[in-house]
Every structure is written in structure tokens, then in C-alpha cells.
Amino acid sequence: MWSVGGSVRSSLLQLRLPQLPVRGVCSTVIHRKSTAPGLTWSAPASVGLTSACCQRSLVRTASGVSGGDVAGVAGASGWYSSLADSALVHLCEHFLVSVQQVSGLPWWMSIAVATLSVRTLITLPLAAYQLVIVSKVEALQMEISELAKRLRYEVSVRARERGWTDKQSRFHFQKNLRHLVSQLYIRDNCHPFKASLLVWVQLPLWISLSLALRNLSLDQSALQCDLAAGGALWFPDLTSPDSTWILPVCLGLINLLIVEVFSLQRVSPTRFQKLVLNFIRGFSVLMIPIAATVPSSMALYWFTSSLLGFSHNLLLRSPAIHKILKLQTARSDSPYRDLLSAFISKYYK
């Protein structure tokens, strides 16, 4: 049970302690501050809408948030200007414009469809992979515990023979335990760092799509006029903030719900885990006023992305999905009922 193949077993028994001294693609779609023929087709032909777009541009210029002003402010902070003008951001701009042009949907629905495709085709598989890695790591905990007990006994015997102090014994124990655990991770191909792959992909993608929508919403072009008339319901203008605060508040609530559902998985959280959860709760609340100051297109993307993330989180709790992924640890047969019971017992009792 405690052996890890021949190499791990020999390492443990021998205990070798003393011997271990894009911009080009998007330029064909987006011509900033120009009226290129390639974009004139997407602008409505009516004079009324054209004049309305011009009026919006004049109002935005008078209020100090025009595309030129944004570029001037960004110039003061070179890192933001470089990030907003990066190849990945322009690739996201091209992707968003292509989705809208191919589908022919209104811009608000195109943003939702683009978010759904990205979350489903990229983020969801990575989240499933993360679940597999975490399951393998959890399955190793029993074996690691047995190895630690055996190793502790071997170290105590060697300490009496060599006259080691308690500090030296702890050092050799921890050093050899790390080596054995590393071999376990290699054997099962489940290093915990692989579980963080989702974050390293999702965060840059989220930032790039957000900046792409901001660029499209604030640039003086025909696309801006389309976005200005591409909203729905209480946010008809996707280039201006949501004055009703409905989208920002919904975003904050869904993010808090995600945090609370995640916290229910931790029966006895450590002090550090509690600190991280409280930080994320505070950030979720802080996102409300931030979402109220950005274009509605960004707030809509943030809300749609969080809503899909919550839906995927619930989907990955399904016993059918666990069977497909062949998870090695035992899971509840009624995860949704257990989640509801834990939520009620925590907040209503």
C-alpha cells in the first residue's frame, strides 16, 4: 500500500538521508477613427440613426470620455495602452466582430453567444481537467499518509543511530517526504500545479475580451454606432454604462453565489482559506460599482460569463459527469440536494 513502485520502495527502505547532501488581422475589420468602405455596410442607412450616432459622439467628447481622450489617458499609463493594443486583444475584437457578422444577431445577443462558445469550448474542458487532477490528488492522500508513517519510523531509527537532533530529524523527514510525494505525482501524472491551468487560461482570456469590448465601444467607428443601437431592454446603448445598475448588481449577486457555493465544499476551512474567501467576497462586491462605470457591453459580458461559470460548476457536480470523467474518489449520488441542504443549514439555521 505504501510502496510507490520499485524506485520509491528502495528510496524509503534505504533512506538515503546522509547521501542526499494579431494586429494585422484585425486591421481589416476595424479601422479606428476612419470610415473605411469595409465597415460602411454595417452602419444603418437612415440619416436619423447616423445623426444620433454623431450626437452620441459629441456628447461623449463633451463629457471627456471620447475615444481620443481614452487613448490620451491610456498614454499616461504605458502598460494599459500596451495591453489594450496587444495582439490577443485585437484577436478577441476580430472574434467578436466575426461572431456578430456571421450570426447576424443583435450585438447584445452576439456577445452572449460569443461568451457561451468561449466558456463551453475552452473553459469547461479545462474545468473538467482540473476536477480530474484534484480527484487524483485526493485519492493519493491515503497512500501519502501511509508513506509518512513509515518514513517517520525510519527517520526515528536513523536519528537514534546517528544522534540527530529534533531539528535535523524534521529536516530529513520533510526532505524525503517531498521526494516521495513528487514521485507519486509523477507516477499518477497529477501534479497539483496542473489544476491551476484553468486560471492561467481563463484570466488572460477574460481580460482580453473585456478590453476588446471596451475598444469596440469607445472607438469612433461605424461599429460603435452599431453597438450604440445593439442593446436591449433597460440597456439599449451598449457603449454607455448601465444607469439602472441592474447588470452590475446581478453580476455582484451571481459572483457572491459562486463564492458561497464554493465555500460549502470546505467543511473545516483553514485560516488562509477563510482569508482568501473573504477577499473574493470583497472583490465581488467591489465589481458592482466598477461594472456601473464601464460600457454596458463589458458589464453584459461579465454577467454572462459569471452566469455560465456558475452553470458549469453545477454541471460538473453531476454523477453522470463524474462517471464519464472516471473520477477516482467517491462522490455523492445526490450532490444538488446535499448542496441545498448545506446552504439552508448554513444561512437559515
From TrEMBL:
Topology of the protein relative to the lipid bilayer: Multi-pass membrane protein
PANTHER family: CYTOCHROME C OXIDASE ASSEMBLY PROTEIN COX18, MITOCHONDRIAL, OXA1
Major subcellular location class: membrane
GO biological process, one term: mitochondrial respiratory chain complex IV assembly
Protein name: Cytochrome c oxidase assembly factor COX18
Domain of life: Eukaryota
GO cellular component, one term: mitochondrial inner membrane
UniProt keyword Transmembrane helix present: yes
Record carries keyword Flavoprotein: no
Residue ranges crossing the lipid bilayer per the database entry: 245-263
InterPro entries (UniProt xref): YidC/ALB3/OXA1/COX18 (IPR001708), YidC/Oxa/ALB_C (IPR028055)
Organism: Seriola lalandi dorsalis
Subcellular location: Membrane
Domain (Membrane insertase YidC/Oxa/ALB C-terminal) ranges: 107-316
Keywords in alphabetical order: Membrane, Transmembrane, Transmembrane helix
Gene Ontology MF annotations: membrane insertase activity
Similarity comment: Belongs to the OXA1/ALB3/YidC family.
